[in-house]
Design brief:
Radius of gyration: 18 Å
Shape: globular
Number of helices: 0
């Protein structure tokens, strides 16, 4: 167990770091701190595993990841803040070939998202997100690289506040058998605002089941004329009475969604 007596404040945060090749962390509890698997600008570690790990009450993130060939299995509880850069899990540029099986539980905190992927390439993610403003933020910061080739397998959204999936600058993202229970006041999928060089190019929502939605299934930015190849297949949904339409599309979006 790694336990700090108190959490950090402001832009500071406590961390447990893994920055070497083939690092392993197993059967570990991290309290008032986050786990960082990154070279910190001095290189990209590869071959790291974190199994049966829990991180609780980390001020900025429960896990920050920028590494090659990683496998993450664990529980992340009460980490992050409402700031768009603070998440339960933040996988950033440099993360390539990643496997992840995790639970992200807001537990009274106000984390922006359960799993944020910015510039990630080739990842398989199975996650249960409880609470949080956004379940899965899949895109890239403006100074990052495009996110590509992501599979979300059996993701669960349990009481997420606003949005389930938030794709931005990304290609070839597949969401398989997602489940959502309550919440989602805005929508299941909100396609972020785009431009001619940064847009969604391939996002599949397959076999979804969404219960007691407050918002719609899909919501597009009204000026997005660049995103393409966005599909939904074999999805079922029920909505709270009087909560509006299942799809919110402008004329510019009609050819995008199939």
């Amino acid at each position: 167990t790694f336990a700090n007596p108190t959490n950090a404040l402001g832009d500071q945060y406590n961390t447990v770091g893994m920055s070497h090749v083939a690092s392993q962390l197993e059967d570990c509890d991290i309290i008032n701190a986050g786990l960082v698997i990154s070279g910190g600008g001095t290189g990209t570690p590869d071959g790291s595993t974190a199994h049966n790990v829990s991180a609780t009450n980390g001020h900025r993130q429960g896990l920050f990841l920028s590494a090659l060939f990683t496998d993450i299995q664990g529980t992340f509880t009460g980490n992050g803040t409402s700031d768009p850069f603070d998440h339960q899990i933040y996988a950033s540029r440099g993360t390539t070939y990643c496997g992840m099986r995790v639970t992200c539980d807001q537990a009274g905190a106000v984390a922006y998202s359960g799993v944020k992927s910015s510039g990630v390439r080739k990842a398989w993610i199975e996650a249960n997100v409880i609470g949080c403003k956004v379940g899965f933020d899949t895109g890239a910061n403006l100074d990052d690289r495009e996110t590509q080739d992501i599979v979300y397998e059996n993701p669960v959204l349990n009481g997420c506040q606003f949005v389930g999936f938030y794709p931005g600058w990304c290609s070839r993202v597949s969401v398989r058998n997602p489940r959502a229970f309550g919440g989602l006041a805005t929508c299941v999928v909100a396609v972020q605002g785009a431009n001619a060089s940064q847009f969604v190019n391939g996002f599949d929502l397959i076999g979804g089941s969404f219960s007691d939605l407050q918002g719609s299934i899909f919501l597009f930015h009204p000026s997005d004329v660049w995103s393409l190849a966005i599909t939904h297949k074999n999805c079922t949904a029920s909505k709270v009475a009087g909560s509006g339409a299942f799809f919110e599309l402008s004329t510019a979006n009609l050819a995008v969604l199939t």
